[in-house]
Amino acid sequence: MKPTVQLLHFGYHQAMSCLFPVAIFGTLALSSAIEVPVIYRYDAILLVLLGVQYAMYRSGLETFDEIKVICVFHIIGLMLELYKVKMGSWSYPEPGFTKLFGVPLYSGFMYASVASYMCQIWRRLKMDMTGWPGLIPAALLGGAIYLNFFTHHFIPDFRWWLTALVVVVFRKTRIIYRVRAVTYRMPLTLAFFLVGFFIWLAENIATFFNAWKYPDQHQAWKMVGFGKISSWFLLVIISVIIVAQLKHVKAGRQLQS
Question: At CA 229, angle to CA 178 and CA 137, rounded to 5?
């Protein structure tokens, strides 16, 4: 297989897997540039994203199982948003009817878009894993990471200890993915970092279009600090743990049936 052909096929599947994230950024950009007088911006974004999800499901781009995973991530993300906004980590300064305790409901879709990408790329590249540590270690680590997003406001931040623990727990785990007839392997921790880095880039785009604002961005937009990459790195781990475990459970049921 020619490397260029493989790269083009890989890029195509990556692009198709990013349809929902692209829809989010496109909606943020358009709603930032075009004011609709009959509806608040946050409410319009929510309606558009609900429509995009419905269209993707009806067209077959997403399966019902993937929609369920996306809903789970929407709830997980919204819970985190409610807490972070209350603690002053960032804010949503614009008005809207679909805001809950200062958080627009569309914000959960930004977390759900990560799940959408994970589910899509898993299916499109026929992904699998070797050296998976198992449900208990993965679930405990994922729970500790999620809990740390809440507790670091009151007790020391353990993100770097958790990052080191990720390297230890997943040191033998490899992602297997297929592009056409060729099978490739990648260390899972490297995949965590790459996805976290690109989400950080996306976060800069989102804050530029006023999806939300960090405290130092209220006067003028500034680049999001590099330290946020570690937060997204850890959030991606939660996403992968949930998606991978659900894929393992589904595969086991199919073997039994």
Answer: 65
